[in-house]
Amino acid sequence: MVTFSSIVSAVKPSERSDQYLILGAMFCLNAHVEPVTAKQINELLRLHLGNKAPTNVNASLRAYEAYVEPAEKGPPLRWRLTTEGLQALRQTSGLEFAKNTNGNNFETDVGIVCALEQPEFEAIMNAMGGPEKWRVVGSPRFPHVYRQTILTTADRKELRVVGTTSTSMGLTAAAIVTTQLILQFRPRLVVMVGIAAGTRAGDRRFGDVLVADPSVDYNSGKVSFADGIREFLPDPYPIGLNPRLRSLLHKYRGDHPIFKGIRSRWAGLLPEGPNRVHLGPLGAADQVIDDESRIVEIQRNWRKLIGVEMETYGVYRACYESPDPKPRFVSFKSVCDFAAVKSDSWQQYAAFVAAEFTAEFLRGEWAALWPSIPG
Q1: What is the pLDDT along the chain (375 residues), one digit of tens a residue?
Q2: How many angstroms separate the Cα of 35 from the Cα of each of 14, 124, 304, 336, 352?
Q3: Which fold has domain 4-93?
Q4: How far apart are CA 370 and CA 375, in angstroms?
Q5: Alpha-carbon gap, residue 81 to 67, rounded angstroms
Q6: What is the rounded distance in angstroms from the CA atom of residue 37 to the CA atom of residue 21?
Q7: Rg for the chain, CA atoms, rounded
Q8: Distance of alpha carbon 169 from alpha carbon 278, whole angstroms
Q9: CATH homologous superfamily for 108-369?
Q10: Beta strands 146-152 and 221-226: pairing type?
């Protein structure tokens, strides 16, 4: 166990800057797991250093933007030690700091995964305050660029949101980026956000939100050849939603007013409405479908299929098989075309709707998602 005394003695007196000491005190207070107040930090510093303790801890915390962040407005204001703060301590001290002293704790509230920087992740940044509210976080050892923002819920809780994009479209890239996001940031909830192809059944329209419940790898199975006939025998291993998530999403079905607000914020042309949420089997595979007969083939095994896309199953599988504590997961993909009728006309609108719905859902339902968490 790394103690504050070992942190202090790990460097020469000339290297014991106020920043180093304050970050070290925050680590010992477990601020990388549960946020702490400036008073708690000050008390620990004075206990160990007496009159040599840093002064004006509040001002120092506000200056260390890359290493600490406000987590709860309070009063009193509470501060969290970021991944960059832990990395700075490692580099200066040479000590091995475990990112989490308790393996049963999460470190981030929401992790967002998009397949494309534009239009998908761009829409997410705009839905959560604009690009200027996001900053790059995480270790440069990882191939993906991670950005972080704070999202305030309806009951004034501040959520730490980390988002990223995969290096390419497809299940493999989606599984890799999700796994690395989970290992580095330990989110409580992972959300896949983007665009998809819808199926025509069920009166689906451009901009409708498809929620994968379950996500289905429709290309998984066995191809057999007998009596001159080639046949595909599916083995899709579907993965569904957490029951709490599913029950909360059910109330958004039908003509929910959330979509009236989303449509009113869109500056371009609007498709015929209203838009709706659809929960059901969403097919995933590493292929773009531009053949209506392929959709018919998939529907033979999944008659309630709501659409097809290329990433969600990889995200769900990465979350499902992640180390404990496992995050919950969900996918919000908006209809931009109908598989055999390909067009880029509604991609921007679909990305906008998916991102806006994600932000609104998190703001409005976070307390209901985690009823055991105060606030």
Answers
A1: 678 988 999 999 999 999 999 999 999 998 887 889 999 999 999 999 999 999 999 999 999 988 999 887 778 899 999 888 888 888 888 887 755 444 457 888 999 999 999 999 999 999 999 999 998 888 778 889 999 999 999 988 889 999 999 988 899 999 999 999 999 899 999 999 999 988 887 788 999 999 999 999 887 767 777 777 777 677 778 999 999 999 999 999 888 999 999 999 999 999 988 999 999 999 888 666 665 666 666 766 667 889 899 999 999 999 999 998 899 999 999 999 887 655 668 999 999 999 999 999 999 999 999 876 444
A2: 29, 26, 45, 41, 33
A3: Arc Repressor Mutant, subunit A (1.10.10)
A4: 9
A5: 6
A6: 15
A7: 23
A8: 23
A9: Nucleoside phosphorylase domain (3.40.50.1580)
A10: unpaired
Residue 375: which residues within 8 A CB-CB, separation 6 or more? 72, 155, 156, 157, 367
**What residue ranges do the domains of the chain occupy?**
4-93, 108-369
- Asked whether the domain spanning 108-369 has the same topology as the one spanning 4-93, the reply is no
The reply to whether the predicted model has a pTM over 0.90 is no
Nearest residue to 207 via CA among 349, 83, 5? 349
Distances (CA, A) of 101 to 28, 72, 345: 10, 21, 49
In which residue are the tokens 């998602």 written? Answer: 369
Extract the tokens encoding 323: 């180390």
